[in-house]
């Protein structure tokens, strides 16, 4: 505010006095500060909240899905089994006993026992049997073998050979003159015992025979039996 003093009674120069209203100035400054503070606060409250940073990076989890296994095909009759045995003094593989799935069949009282024709001096022993244990045949199979209640039997042909080392020997199993199986063996010793076996199910009843021959077709032994 400016104040002008007019003194007509004196000839000296007029003096100009300037006075500032500090209360108003300070009040205006405070109002400006409050306005700025309100504007900044409103902007801070109205701005979008930043997305918080993840505490960890998500890792995809792969869960294995169990798939049903394909249905297994129905198992047919067990395959022909070969058991080779060395004579005492030479180590060989032990023969395998009949599987649990084959039920034992009691012998028929008064039944005629099967016979094996030995057709070569190279064959020391030969026997048709229902089992081979500890490298030896157990009993002699009958010429007429009945089918058991389980519908599956097993028949062995046991042979002991001498002087056929390195040669190829065949055991051929025939049903009604049709060859059903061929078991091939190659003796690794001069004197060796070898047995082959054949599983026979209820659909394979009939006249059976087993022939033992060399690779050149020389007959060594022959046996016949019937399954009913």
UniProtKB/TrEMBL annotation:
UniProt feature, compositional bias: Low complexity: 75-86
Domain DUF2914: residue ranges: 167-227
A Pfam short name: DUF2914
Superkingdom of origin: Bacteria
The keyword Transmembrane helix is annotated on this UniProt entry: yes
Keywords: Membrane, Transmembrane, Transmembrane helix
Stretches for region Disordered: 70-106
Transmembrane intervals: 25-46
Compositionally skewed regions (Basic and acidic residues) per UniProt: 87-97
Protein name: DUF2914 domain-containing protein
Lineage per the UniProt record: Bacteria, Pseudomonadati, Pseudomonadota, Gammaproteobacteria, Halospina
């Amino acid at each position: 505010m400016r104040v002008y003093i007019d003194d007509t009674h004196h000839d000296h120069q007029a003096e100009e006095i300037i006075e500032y209203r500090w209360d108003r100035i300070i009040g205006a400054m405070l109002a400006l500060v409050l306005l700025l503070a309100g504007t900044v606060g409103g902007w801070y409250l109205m701005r979008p909240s930043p997305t918080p940073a993840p505490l960890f990076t998500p890792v995809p989890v792969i869960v294995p899905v169990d798939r049903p296994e394909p249905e297994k095909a129905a198992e047919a009759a067990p395959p022909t089994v070969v058991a080779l045995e060395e004579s005492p003094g030479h180590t060989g593989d032990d023969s395998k006993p009949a599987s649990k799935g084959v039920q034992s069949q009691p012998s028929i009282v008064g039944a005629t026992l099967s016979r094996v024709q030995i057709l070569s001096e190279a064959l020391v022993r030969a026997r048709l049997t229902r089992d081979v244990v500890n490298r030896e045949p157990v009993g002699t199979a009958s010429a007429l073998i009945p089918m058991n209640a389980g519908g599956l039997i097993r028949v062995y042909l046991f042979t002991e050979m001498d002087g056929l080392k390195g040669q190829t020997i065949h055991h051929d199993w025939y049903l009604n003159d049709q060859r059903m199986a061929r078991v091939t063996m190659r003796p690794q010793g001069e004197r060796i015992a070898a047995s082959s076996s054949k599983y026979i199910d209820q659909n394979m009843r009939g006249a059976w025979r087993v022939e033992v021959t060399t690779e050149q077709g020389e007959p060594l032994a022959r046996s016949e039996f019937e399954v009913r």
